[in-house]
Amino acid sequence: MKKLKIFFDIEKEEKWLNEQLAKGFRCTKISSLGVYTFEETDKKHVMRLDYRDRMKKEKDLEYTNMYEDFGWRSIAGSKMVGIRYWQKEADGHDELFSDRESLAKYYQRLMVYSGWLGITLFAIMVNYIFIQKPSFYHDGLWHMEGSLFWKAFLFETPFAILKALPAIMVILFMDGYYRAYKKYKVLKTA
């Protein structure tokens, strides 16, 4: 079974994947385009996600071997994005991060991930608004009348939404940054 789903929040993605496991569907592959491949299972599994920057081959092998030594199996996904998917049969030791310090570092990595994506998309948004003004405001549309206006308006609406997409994504990634920051702050101060 395949499902298409796009996430801007790694924790919501992890929660959704674990909900699929609870329904009896184990994830076997994840594409960078948001296509999740599942197979039925009668065993109880747990899935955890981690974010890692690009690593050299030796460091990546060390990272992978460490989790595999604890029973985790890496799910085929895009390492280009930096999100790593780990799955194993539930055994009571179902967390990737065993102490506050490693969990705090995880949230710090999420802050960097969300922050850079938000900043990049903000730059794209500024480009649309201030540099490419004529294409952003759809010149001529507001001077049309009657049915011609409504046809043009309905035709242009999806394009206007697409141009607003970077702004929406900036908000989503900055929200992710803020939530990761709050969790990081709690772990560091307690």
Structural class: alpha+beta
Strand order across the largest sheet: 1-3-2
What is the helix/strand order? Answer: EHEEEHEEHHH
Overall mean confidence score, pLDDT:
85
Number of helices: 5
Unreliable residue runs: none
Which percent range fits the helix content?
A: 55-70%
Q: Return Rg in Å.
A: 21 Å
Query: Biggest β-sheet, characterized?
Result: 3 strands, antiparallel
Shape estimate: globular
* Through-space gap between termini: 43 Å
* Beta strand %: 15-25%
* Count of beta strands: 6
Give a description of the structure.
- With 190 residues, this protein is of the alpha+beta class.
- It contains five helices and six strands; from the N terminus they run E-H-E-E-E-H-E-E-H-H-H.
- The chain has helices at residues 10-22, 57-69, 100-131, 133-137, 146-189, and strands at residues 2-4, 25-30, 35-40, 45-51, 73-74, 83-89.
- The strands form two sheets. A three-stranded antiparallel sheet has the order 1-3-2, with helices on one face.
- It is globular and about 70 Å long.
- The N and C termini lie far apart (43 Å).
- The mean pLDDT is 85.
